[in-house]
């Protein structure tokens, strides 16, 4: 039953232990039931159907349905990983979650930032110990934003692959271009190339499916109508001023944002404005990703949420992250 007075996200400051982080490494609610059969390839882009076939073959190689990696390698060039490369909204996360469902035994699914947070919480050696022996480590939104992450993830995936764990990842950036435009990638070319060499790269072309089904701009709610709009959504809902929320997000690690939005039926944002600080913008992207994963509707006043990232940000090294967030905000406000 809808509530009369929205609560506040600022009251949610979750802590997560390493064990809790590991237990949460499963597909988000939106993709909990994703299967290869429920993926809808766009007939105008044959690479989508081809990607389904390649993911299916990769899954079969883990379950004995094909010539796989565990004692059934196809040849000396067989690789332990599959990398789904494409623009936002072409169904990469759906395919990754479907692959996770098909994988046997112990397996993990998380965003890139969740894995780096896991290493931070447990320490590198304990994180490797935890993940070793898994049939599959699935990494969504694979992005390397600094050289330390580049070298750490290269080492981690190398150790896991050497023990037989299969790796699957999605990103908007081909693996040999990870880090491009964000740091001196040429200084880390060897590490980035080593990471790239572990994957069979599957290109997925197509249009953003969210843009196919919703209007092209984020809906705006009048400030005096926010509580009424939130009252039409399932309880519980929250309502916060934009700037205090940004400050709150700066005090919570992004890997814990999923706990901030868990169980919500709607989020209200009052006084949205264009962001000028890169750190605020990237934290807001991570927050939007978790809202989208949990399919939490958003009602907002002020600047339309598809205009929340300034022009200078949209031409910088994080352009693809911002565009993905805009696409998701349009869907969440519609």
TrEMBL record:
Entry GO MF terms: ATP binding; ATP hydrolysis activity
Keyword Ribonucleoprotein: no
Keywords: ATP-binding, Cell cycle, Cell division, Nucleotide-binding
GO terms under biological process: cell division
Top-level lineage group: Bacteria
GO cellular component: cytoplasm
Alphabetical list of InterPro entries matching this protein: ATPase_AFG1-like, P-loop_NTPase
Pfam family, one: AFG1_ATPase
ATP-binding found in the keyword field: yes
Signal sequence segment: none
NCBIfam families: ZapE (NF040713)
PANTHER family: AFG1-LIKE ATPASE, ATPASE N2B
UniProt protein name: Cell division protein ZapE
Organism: Protaetiibacter intestinalis
């Amino acid at each position: 039953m809808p509530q009369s007075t929205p609560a506040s996200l600022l009251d949610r400051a979750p802590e997560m232990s390493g064990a809790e982080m590991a237990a949460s490494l499963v597909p988000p609610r939106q993709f909990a039931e994703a299967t290869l059969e429920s993926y809808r390839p766009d007939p105008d882009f044959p690479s989508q159907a081809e990607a389904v076939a390649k993911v299916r073959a990769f899954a079969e190689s883990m379950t004995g349905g094909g010539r796989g990696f565990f004692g059934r390698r196809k040849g000396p060039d067989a690789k332990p990983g599959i990398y789904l490369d494409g623009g936002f909204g072409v169904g990469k996360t759906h395919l990754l979650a479907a692959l996770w469902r098909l994988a046997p035994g112990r397996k993990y699914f998380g965003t890139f930032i969740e894995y780096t947070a896991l290493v931070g919480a447990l320490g590198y050696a304990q994180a490797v110990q935890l993940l070793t022996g898994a049939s599959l480590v699935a990494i969504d939104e694979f992005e390397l934003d600094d050289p330390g992450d580049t070298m750490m993830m290269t080492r981690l995936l190398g150790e896991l692959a050497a023990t037989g764990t299969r790796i699957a990842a999605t990103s908007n950036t081909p693996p040999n271009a990870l880090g491009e435009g964000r740091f001196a990638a040429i200084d880390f070319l060897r590490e980035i190339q080593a990471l790239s060499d572990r994957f069979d790269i599957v290109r997925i072309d197509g249009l953003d499916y969210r843009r196919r089904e919703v209007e092209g701009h984020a809906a705006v709610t009048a400030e005096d109508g926010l509580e009424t709009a939130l009252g039409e959504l399932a309880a519980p809902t929250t309502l916060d001023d934009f700037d205090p929320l940004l400050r709150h997000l700066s005090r919570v690690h992004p890997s814990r944002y999923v706990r901030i939005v868990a169980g919500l039926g709607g989020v209200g944002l009052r006084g949205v404005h264009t962001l000028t600080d890169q750190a605020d913008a990237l934290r807001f992207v991570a927050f939007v990703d978790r809202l989208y994963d949990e399919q939490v509707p958003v009602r907002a006043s002020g600047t339309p949420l598809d205009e929340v990232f300034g022009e200078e940000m949209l031409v910088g090294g994080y352009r693809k992250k911002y565009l993905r967030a805009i696409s998701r905000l349009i869907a969440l406000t519609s």
